[in-house]
Design goal:
Structural class: mainly alpha
Low-confidence stretches: none
Number of strands: 0
Helix content: over 70%
Number of domains: 2
Shape: flat
Distance between the termini: 41 Å
């Protein structure tokens, strides 16, 4: 924040608000909210449960790629996703 303050005060940059700027701002807001949610989960839950669950975020990417982009999963990938979901369920009841 200190660097940004000096940059905007002394550098006087010109910022064009366009789709790329809006996307960057949205990504920044989502990143901060994800970090805050992670720390909230660490505060409320056990680290031994929270960290493995948050480490399984690629499952969301794989499922969304299959649903939205119509990417096909191989048998090995499908079994891996299924086992990861089972692991999430087993960790959450533990």
């Amino acid at each position: 924040m200190i660097f940004l303050t000096f940059f905007f005060v002394f550098g006087k940059p010109t910022v064009a608000f366009n789709m790329q700027t809006a996307t960057a701002m949205l990504v920044g807001v989502l990143g901060v909210s994800a970090s805050m949610t992670f720390y909230y989960a660490l505060e409320r839950g056990k680290v031994s449960i929270v960290v493995p669950l948050t480490a399984m975020y690629p499952i969301v990417t794989v499922v969304l790629a299959a649903v939205i982009l119509k990417e096909e999963l191989s048998l090995t990938q499908g079994v891996g996703v299924l086992l990861a979901i089972v692991a999430v369920l087993l960790i959450s009841i533990g």
